[in-house]
Q: What sequence folds into this?
């Protein structure tokens, strides 16, 4: 039987090991990928070989951790004794370490490994995380998930585009530059919507002068008079001229653009989020799943940390 010393503290020099971390652990990735959405984030118990079990108690941890009479004092011996090169053996040991300390271990994982851990959440839970991101973070996600500005705008509503066009940061000069490629009919529609006056048979040059004499607010009101697809096209050109205007959309309207993506695309898009923020998300995982994510860490690094900082824990794995 294993008893865990809950007074264990994490070695202050943990981050010394950061440069030693390897970039991948394919077996650990596979172990994470086997879990379905139905099992994600529900606190399901994980057996000693990574299998899902439903019992309230898991008494197999001691078996997977092996039986150690003499605690190894070097990493190589510990790896051999506990078979730490096997993800299931890592898992059995890591499940004995407190949640708060496992979180610090996550700092030794790379971006791809942290994202692999996000797969253990349901899509609904991921959207809860994404819904709390700032506009800047959402824009980074959308830029990665979409191919072009036109695609990003494709699902924005007329109301959301009208809100954007009410921004005080839109520059008149950029709009006039875009209007140079519009047809006479489109210029006439903008001028009429902006002034409320029919433009008759004015030439394209005359219409351009009418619009040029208007204020920025009047011109954006004129754009709102266009049919949706044409209005969206002009907004797209504005964003290409000045990408900072993306910030004029509301946080909620940007978030809505992520909802229809599959879970895999959400995880990929979240690769734009800082590692520290990803670790905060992973903190919401049940203990067993958090331990599973941590099995991706480099075996040599884990063994060295255990030898240096967890002698009490190792000594409690008894025959």
A:
């Amino acid at each position: 039987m294993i008893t865990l010393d809950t007074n264990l503290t994490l070695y202050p020099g943990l981050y010394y090991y950061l440069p030693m971390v390897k970039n991948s652990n394919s077996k650990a990735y596979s172990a994470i990928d086997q879990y379905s959405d139905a099992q994600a984030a529900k606190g399901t118990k994980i057996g000693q070989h990574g299998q899902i079990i439903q019992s309230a108690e898991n008494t197999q941890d001691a078996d997977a951790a092996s039986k150690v009479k003499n605690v190894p004092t070097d990493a190589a011996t510990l790896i051999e004794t506990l078979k730490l090169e096997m993800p299931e053996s890592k898992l059995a040991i890591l499940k004995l370490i407190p949640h708060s300390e496992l979180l610090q271990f996550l700092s030794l994982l790379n971006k791809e490994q942290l994202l692999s851990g996000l797969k253990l959440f349901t899509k609904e839970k991921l959207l809860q995380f994404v819904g709390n991101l700032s506009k800047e973070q959402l824009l980074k996600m959308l830029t990665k998930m979409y191919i072009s500005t036109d695609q990003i705008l494709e699902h924005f509503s007329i109301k959301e585009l009208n809100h954007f066009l009410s921004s005080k940061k839109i520059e008149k000069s950029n709009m006039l530059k875009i209007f140079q490629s519009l047809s006479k009919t489109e210029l006439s529609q903008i001028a009429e919507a902006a002034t409320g006056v029919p433009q008759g048979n004015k030439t394209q040059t005359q219409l351009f002068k009418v619009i040029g004499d208007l204020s920025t607010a009047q011109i954006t009101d004129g754009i709102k008079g266009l049919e949706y697809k044409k209005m969206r096209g002009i907004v797209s050109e504005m964003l290409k001229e000045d990408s900072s205007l993306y910030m004029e959309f509301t946080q909620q309207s940007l978030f809505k653009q992520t909802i229809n993506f599959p879970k895999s695309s959400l995880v990929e898009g979240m690769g734009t989020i800082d590692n520290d923020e990803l670790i905060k998300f992973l903190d919401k995982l049940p203990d067993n799943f958090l331990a599973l994510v941590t099995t991706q860490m480099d075996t040599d690094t884990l063994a060295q940390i255990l030898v240096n900082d967890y002698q009490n824990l190792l000594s409690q794995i008894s025959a």
